[in-house]
């Protein structure tokens, strides 16, 4: 089983309507999208987080259930649902977050499960590891379960929510020591380490703890780093509608490939061959590419990959 921990929110995405711009609500949040994508790909998945009881919260719960994601580890809150306003720009989508005292960030240690299934993997990421009090609660869970099960991370950096880059980098270093696999985007690395080579940063990260570090580069494909080995793949060519949720779809594709291949522990991850990593990257890139062909974070179902 895969347990995905983090935020659940509503992306307000723009659409043209009678000559004006209207905003349409789409369920989202990076970990939420990863859970949804993995569930649709046939990986037994549960979401761990806090969701509002409001109308948007009901939409979030329904969308998870429809994507075959278990709600066993979901807590409910009276607070409102976080909203993310999505604004397209030449460099991609820009997100403005409305998340003060919202349900998903108010996850406390007592909301965490005391035990998890022995073979369950954990995935963390995005602003749920930044905004308190939920960030410290999830860090506690990460530290508690590190090296006891497969743990993966996608930082999915949101500069708008990070007032101090140096403090964030220090916190990030602590996560890297705990996790077994990291996926990070080129945009994330360029904001965190301006002017530095993507490959050298990925290699430095890998030395801190992860078995592999995967870097996604949008339409330019992706590469994986282990020690001095770098494996690259190209992105499939598709007609892009938008890129919202593409990185999350890549992550869910990565996790689903690992699940279906029986690679569900750190030792198994360490034993992967270069050919297997190449196959993983191609599969994940295909899942992401399909997601880019439609509006909003709407990852594909397993039968769409046939």
Defining traits:
306 residues, alpha/beta, nine-stranded mixed beta sheet, 9 helices, 13 strands, EC 2.7.1.4, PfkB_Carbo_kinase, ATP-binding, Fructokinase, fructokinase activity
Question: What does this protein structure show overall?
Answer:
The chain is of the alpha/beta class and 306 residues long. The chain has one domain (2-305): 3-Layer(aba) Sandwich (UDP-N-acetylmuramoyl-L-alanine:D-glutamate ligase), CATH 3.40.1190.20. It has 9 helices and 13 strands. The strands form 2 sheets. It has a 9-stranded mixed β-sheet, sandwiched between helices. A 4-stranded mixed β-sheet has the order 3-2-6-7. β2 and β3 (20-28) form a beta hairpin. It is globular. Belongs to the carbohydrate kinase PfkB family. It comes from Meiothermus hypogaeus. Its EC number is 2.7.1.4. Pfam families: PfkB.
């Amino acid at each position: 089983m895969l347990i995905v921990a983090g935020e659940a929110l509503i992306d307000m995405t723009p659409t043209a309507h009678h000559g004006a711009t209207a905003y349409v609500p789409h369920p989202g949040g990076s970990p939420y999208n990863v859970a949804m994508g993995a569930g649709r790909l046939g990986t037994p998945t549960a979401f761990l987080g806090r969701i509002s009881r409001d109308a948007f919260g009901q939409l979030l719960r329904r969308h998870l259930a429809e994507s075959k994601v278990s709600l066993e580890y979901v807590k409910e809150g009276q607070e409102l649902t976080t909203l993310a306003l999505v604004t397209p720009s030449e460099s991609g989508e820009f997100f403005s977050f409305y998340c003060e005292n919202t349900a998903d960030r108010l996850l406390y240690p007592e909301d965490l499960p005391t035990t998890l299934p022995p073979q369950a993997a954990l995935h963390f990421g995005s602003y749920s590891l930044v905004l308190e009090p939920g960030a410290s609660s999830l860090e506690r869970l990460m530290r508690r379960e590190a090296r006891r099960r497969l743990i993966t991370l996608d930082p999915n950096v949101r500069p708008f929510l990070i007032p101090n880059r140096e403090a964030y980098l220090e916190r990030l270093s602590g996560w890297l020591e705990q996790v077994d696999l990291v996926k990070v985007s080129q945009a994330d690395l360029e904001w965190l380490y301006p002017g530095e080579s993507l490959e050298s940063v990925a290699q430095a990260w890998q030395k801190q703890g992860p078995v592999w570090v995967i870097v996604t580069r949008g339409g330019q494909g992706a590469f994986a780093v282990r020690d001095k080995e770098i494996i690259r793949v190209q992105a499939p060519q598709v007609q892009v509608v938008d890129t919202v949720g593409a990185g999350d779809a890549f992550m869910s594709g990565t996790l689903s490939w690992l699940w279906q291949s029986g690679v569900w522990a750190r030792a198994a991850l360490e034993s992967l061959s270069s050919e297997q990593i190449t196959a993983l990257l191609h599969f994940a890139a295909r899942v992401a590419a399909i997601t880019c062909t439609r509006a909003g974070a709407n990852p594909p179902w397993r039968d769409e990959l046939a």
